[in-house]
Amino acid sequence: MNTPRGARRTDTKLSDGRELIYYDPADAPARAPLEDTRGLPAPQPQVELRTDPLTGDVITYATHRNTRTYLPPADQCPLCASKPGNPTEIPDHDYNVAVFENRFPSFAGPGRTEVVCFTSDHNRSFTDLSQGQARLVVDTWADRTAELGARDDVELVFPFENRGREIGVTLNHPHGQIYAYPFIPPRMQNLLRQARKHQEVAGSNLFADVLAAERKEGTRVVAENGNWTAFVPEAARWPVEVHLYPHRQVGGIDELSVGERDDFAELYLDVLQRLDGLYGEPLPYIAAWHQAPVRIDRELGYLHLELLSIRRAKDKIKYLAGSESGMGAFISDTRPEDVAETLRKAGQ
After folding, report:
1. pLDDT tens track for 246-270
2. Strands across the sheet with 175-181, in order?
3. Which of 242, 268, 283, 310 has the maximal Cβ count within 10 Å?
């Protein structure tokens, strides 16, 4: 079937009952998915949620994740398309984008965790995708946002990508994840708290006002196009941090128009290439979508993507030390305006 924005979607099941979904271009031939022949046992995740009485933060314990696959050799990668001698999580011999329920989920019962494979090519990264391929990933995120956000046990849908060993990835294949949280996580609670205060005082949306101020001031803007702006935030915490905002306030990726999705894919690839140009090699990063909550305070939210890297120099990593880990008070070695200028030059 086709998703609301045109991608072709094919649903199937893995041998242990987990869902697997293929996303192909709308004009691609209909897919007849192959059977998963691995005969996997049914998953038995062990997940417990506890609330810290001192902060109110929800902490998730998922002890079964200690046994998950860790940096296997390329010929044993579980995210590659299957081939003789290496049946994987994706039974077909090739795919464009594939999404499946995580075999080692962080949430079970309430909530859900999914893996999003951006391409079947093990040796590529998101940065290497064509604009059309990146655009298909955007449609995939949008479809998953709409479906997961419709569940009664989900409060926030969080697509993200971790890239690089320094970040802590356990699989090198180009992929991201989606956490459909059964609660509002701490960072989003803090953002909403600030947005509510701003709304009460200024009568306007905090995120929209931040975007307008950054575009007007200009020194921290990295790149922009008709529908999106990428900038280094004025109070960036991380050595390299870039936020991508649409010019129109929307709550989720699924609300983006065709033109907004096109422009995001174009700008995002541009920014990723600038990041890789900083030190002449792939930059480790986290790409974190900030979508509005499904039900609570949705009108205060503003869809945007936050990109951050812990690399503060070509051969140096920013580790969270006493002030950051113990008190949550960040001390940065890089000035946002300088980072923005460097990234602007990286695209020349």
Report:
1. 999 999 999 999 999 999 999 999 9
2. 8-13, 19-24, 97-101, 112-117, 175-181, 156-163, 285-290, 304-309, 240-246, 228-231, 221-224
3. 242
